[in-house]
Structure formats: structure tokens, C-alpha cells
UniProtKB/TrEMBL annotation:
This is Ig-like domain-containing protein. Signal peptide: none annotated. It comes from Bemisia tabaci (Sweetpotato whitefly). It comes from the Eukaryota. It holds the Pfam family ig.
């Protein structure tokens, strides 16, 4: 955040930076008057340009800052700081279901990032993944970075919590479920599940003491047999 004042004579007066939100004097010359070591003022060598530096900028730092020179009349220069907060997410649901042995790609997307993200670290159950061959980082736009974690063949030990942690940004997590079943319910079944017809066989299955879905064919055969026997009995009974 620089502010420069040019004149035909060197500026010997004090130069202050003031935060307009609360009229707090942050710095006077090279001295800092706020209990936050992120603030620092310095003068470029051989110039009258004074710079206020704010390290690790946060959303609360947004607003107006005024550079004041203690001349008479006072010289001042106003600067507005806009803080763009990057967004970070792992694509897909927070609970991810995959088949055993399938290839998995977890994509961590960072948008609204003015500066290119230096590093993206991945953690599995709070342990950092050190194999760099499994992690790809690419800049896909002027403000977008994608960090991809590749699992070539998912195993049961790959299940668990995965965290994407870029440098100087908040982290985000997702949970990976590795399923043994070839047709897991979480992946294959919707609201109208194919298993619903089993409900109609519950009374008969309970009577037979068998599993509802496995016994439906036997129950159907029993009903058909009962129907055929009843029909034969009625056929051979003479009419009165």
C-alpha cells in the first residue's frame, strides 16, 4: 500500500499512517503504534515514498487508510484496501462413495485467488500424504488453482477423512467410503428402490420364518399351489 509525495525539498516532517475505520494511528515514520506486528511502514531508499505493509491480510483489514504528513497545511493521501477472500472446496459431496479397486480423483478447487497458490498439501486422517506423484497442481485461470489427489486403486485402507490444505488458506475436508459391494446401495439405489416389492411378502415370510426378500419366490409358489389345489377340489365336487 504505497503513497508518494514529491516536492522540491526533502520531507523532514513526520509521516503517519492512520486507519480511518477507528482513527487509529498505525505508524509514525518507521515506528509502529499498534499491537499487531503485521503492520510495518518503511521509506524507499533515496525517495520520499512511504509504504505501509500489512502482512497476512485478512477480511477485517479492508477499508480506508490515510497517509498524513505533518506539514502546515497538512498533506494527506487516502488509499482504499479491498480484500478478496479466496474460495476453496473439494468437488462433489462431503461423503464420497467409491467401489473397491476403482481409481479416485479428489479435486481441491481454489477460486478468487489473486496470487498463485504456492503449495497444496493433502492429508489422510490427519497424516500428510508425501508421495508427490499422487498430487497434481495446475493453474486453470487467472484466479483459479486446482489441486488433484489421485488414488490409482482404492483399498479399504484408503477410506477415511481427506483434507486439502493450501498455504495461507483455510483447509477443507471430505470423507471417502470404499465399498466392497459391487452394487452398493449408496451408489445404485434411488428413492424408488427395487427392493420395495419385498414389503408385500412380509406377512407370508414371517409365517414361514424366513428372510423377506429371499423367500418371496417360495411364498409365490406356495400361493400358486394352494390356488391350484383349491381349483381341483372345486372341480371334482359334484353340483347339488
Amino acid at each position: 500500500m504505497p503513497a508518494a509525495f514529491k516536492s522540491f525539498f526533502p520531507i523532514k516532517e513526520n509521516v503517519s499512517w492512520v486507519r480511518k475505520r477507528d482513527s487509529h494511528i498505525l505508524t509514525v515514520d518507521r515506528y509502529t503504534f499498534v499491537g499487531d506486528d503485521r503492520y510495518q511502514a518503511f521509506q524507499a531508499d533515496g525517495t520520499d515514498a512511504w509504504t505501509l505493509q500489512i502482512k497476512f491480510v485478512q477480511p477485517r483489514d479492508a477499508g480506508q487508510y490515510e497517509c498524513q504528513v505533518s506539514t502546515e497545511p497538512k498533506l494527506s493521501h487516502m488509499v482504499t484496501l479491498n480484500v478478496v477472500v479466496p474460495r476453496i472446496e473439494i468437488l462433489g459431496d462431503q461423503d464420497i462413495h467409491v467401489k473397491l479397486g476403482s481409481q479416485v480423483e479428489l479435486k481441491c478447487v481454489i477460486t478468487q485467488s489473486i496470487e498463485e497458490t504456492g503449495f497444496i498439501f493433502w492429508y489422510h486422517n490427519n497424516r500428510r500424504i508425501l508421495d508427490s506423484k499422487l498430487i497434481k497442481i495446475e493453474r486453470t485461470g487467472s484466479d483459479t488453482t486446482v489441486g488433484t489427489l489421485v488414488i490409482l486403486s482404492a483399498k479399504q485402507t484408503d477410506a477415511g477423512n481427506y483434507t486439502c490444505a493450501p498455504t495461507n488458506l483455510q483447509s477443507v475436508s471430505a470423507y471417502l467410503h470404499v465399498l466392497m459391494d459391487e452394487h452398493p446401495a449408496a451408489m445404485q439405489r434411488g428413492k424408488n428402490s427395487a427392493s420395495l416389492p419385498c414389503i408385500w411378502w412380509v406377512p407370508f415370510s414371517v409365517a414361514l420364518g424366513m428372510d423377506t426378500c429371499l423367500s418371496r419366490h417360495l411364498t409365490l409358489m406356495a400361493l400358486l399351489s394352494f390356488y391350484l389345489i383349491s381349483s381341483l377340489v372345486l372341480f371334482f365336487i359334484p353340483e347339488s
